[in-house]
Amino acid sequence: MKLTLRVWRQRNAAAEGAMSTYELDDVSSDMSFLEMLDVLNEQLILAGEDPVAFDHDCREGICGACSLVINGDAHGPERTTACQLHMRSFRDGDTIDVEPWRAAAFPVVKDLVVDRSAFDRIIQAGGYITAPTGAAPESHATPVPKPDADFAFEHAECIGCGACVAACPNGAAMLFTSAKVNHLNVLPQGAPERESRVLDMVAQMDEEGFGGCTLTGECATACPKGIPLVSITSMNKEWLRATRRAGKR
């Protein structure tokens, strides 16, 4: 395929950015989107130009590092991560726009790379359990009902890629935060911090400058791991419960 790429170039967070246009020939439909960007960078390096900076790691749809907005969609036209998106999703002669996540809480580092450490600080605020020292307990020592285990596992699938924030018109991080809260709050191991977890994580989310949630649903649509929109309402219930219990103390 022959493609025209319009890629966002920005030297750093303080500099002004702009779209730059590049032409690519002989792009295989079997390439992943990131492999196509590798080919572009090889072309730029051979021409003595600065390669495009983009974030990536495992390239297996697990780590969530490949944060790209492709033709206006977080991770592109398929419900998957950008590293698992293949060029057969595009056609010969297409023009493809490639941009970074757009959110105040995700400042641009360079080109397509953004700083998502706000997510790390949200997890640090409450995404843990009280872990006793000593040998690990037997796996069946604390029985967990099957519906609770399924609910926890569904939310544990969140890879923290940030597509929910990039897709949200408000730049909200509610789907990410709710996945981390619900994953632990439904399990008996997470019970000791149940109230403090949701209060602290939501407070940290607000402090990071994410937008407010209006339940537009774009976050769940863009999530490559299928975290459901009902996750947000579940966290809201947890937050109200914790707020009421804190007010009675």
From TrEMBL:
Family annotation (NCBIfam families): PRK07570.1
Keywords, ordered alphabetically: Iron, Iron-sulfur, Metal-binding
The protein's name in its UniProt record: Succinate dehydrogenase/fumarate reductase iron-sulfur subunit
Cofactor: [2Fe-2S] cluster; [3Fe-4S] cluster
Transmembrane is among the record's keywords: no
Domain spans labelled 2Fe-2S ferredoxin-type: 1-102
Keyword Iron-sulfur: yes
Source organism of this protein record: Streptomyces andamanensis
Similarity field: Belongs to the succinate dehydrogenase/fumarate reductase iron-sulfur protein family.
UniProt cross-references to Pfam families, sorted A to Z: Fer2_3, Fer4_7
